[in-house]
Amino acid sequence: MKVQAEVSLYPLRSRKLSGPVKEFCQVLRSHGLHVQTRSMSTFVVGESEELFDALKEGFEVLARGNAVVMDLTISNTCPDTREQECAETERVD
Fold first, then answer.
1. Number of C-alpha atoms within 13 angstroms, CB side, residue 29?
2. CA dihedral sign, ordered 36, 41, 43, 49
3. Are residues 9 and 73 in contact, defined by beta-carbon separation less than 8 angstroms?
4. pLDDT tens-digit map of 27-47
5. SS3 letters for 29-73?
6. φ and ψ at 17, to 5 degrees?
């Protein structure tokens, strides 16, 4: 089943955040997932089994050398052919 996830990754006590985040995104991409980085989170689209496997692997890779917090939201409501439309957000005041 096609799913989308919004992942926020917080490497704690790290001088630079970009290194661990890039490493995490490389793991996600190595599983064939669509990965879009944003300022505070990463948007990921793919098949649920691959997404869950990649999230587990990515977390374990980073946790070996860092203290890490991951915040995750997963949804199956994204139509298969509308990845970009699902990535767009609407501001609610």
1. 10
2. positive
3. no
4. 999 999 999 998 889 999 999
5. HHCCCEEEECCCCEEEEEEHHHHHHHHHHHHHHHHCCCEEEEEEE
6. -85, -25
Task: Quote the crossing angle between the two packed helices 18-30 and 48-63, to the nearest 10°.
Answer: 150
Q: What is the pLDDT of residue 14?
A: 76
Would you mind telling me the total number of residues written for the chain in this entry? Answer: 93
DSSP at 39: S
CA distance 23 to 66: 12
> In this structure, what DSSP letter does residue 81 have?
T
2-75 fold? Alpha-Beta Plaits (3.30.70)
Q: Where are the domains of the chain?
A: 2-75
Tally of CB atoms within 10 A around 67: 11
Amino acid making up residue 91: R
Strands of the sheet containing 42-47, edge to edge, are 34-37, 42-47, 2-12, 67-75
Question: What is the distance between the alpha carbons of residues 2 and 78, in angstroms, rounded to a whole number?
Answer: 7
